[in-house]
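Kindly go through the entry underneath: sequence plus fold tokens. Please state briefly how this chain folds according to its tokens.
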Amino acid sequence: MRRLMLAAVLLASIAMAEVRPVAQATAELRVVTYNIKHGRGMDDRVDLDRTAAVLRPRQPDIVGLQEVDDRATRSGGVAQAEHLGRLLGLRHAFGQFMAFQGGGYGLAVLSRHPIARVDPVRLPDGNEPRVALAVEIRPAEGPAFTVVNVHFDWVRDDGFRFAQATALTAYLDALKMPFLLLGDFNDVPDSRTLALFRARATEAAKPEGGRFTFSSTQPDKEIDYIFFSPAAMFGVREVRVIDERVASDHRPVLAVLTRR
């Protein structure tokens, strides 16, 4: 009888365990955006090893790079996205704005996770041609998501920049999966450009005392950002601007996110 009672208690415990809610696992996602100025530092030297040395200690899973050359003369004919990916052990995708000095000029995404699709999204021309680089990422665990890397027009009049941002919102609104949006937006937090994206995504907000990303030597402007959507899929563990003053004229931004 006692054995039967113990067995009944054990079965009841197993049944209770089956219906008890289990805490959902979270995975960390380390995301960086960095305008690398084609690897040309404030000492006027092109040095991708130095660029990689800035990124490597951050152990990034996703990197959005702006001002990237692809076999251009001024950068020694190097395919910079591929080369940085190799130095960091990451996969790479390159999106070309335009032909430049025997090669191309644009932006890149590096990823620790497999890249399933690369979609350069043509934006309205401004001072220079522009694309947004959309890259579908498929982690081994968890849902797929799209990384959208941007580098909007830089001129003071925001007309070109706002037109490019407006065109990109149509792409974002049509996306059927979660996304990260990051890059050099070339605009300040209270601009109408940034308002478009705050209406569609959540910013990985920087600490109030360390928001400025440009210039690297005397930072007084916040123009580089990381956003995510939907808010229910991502959480923010940490955001900081890296105090790097030599490798580029921008400072990189690191966001440590959680994926639910």
Remarks:
- The CA atoms of residues 32 and 254 lie 5 Å apart.
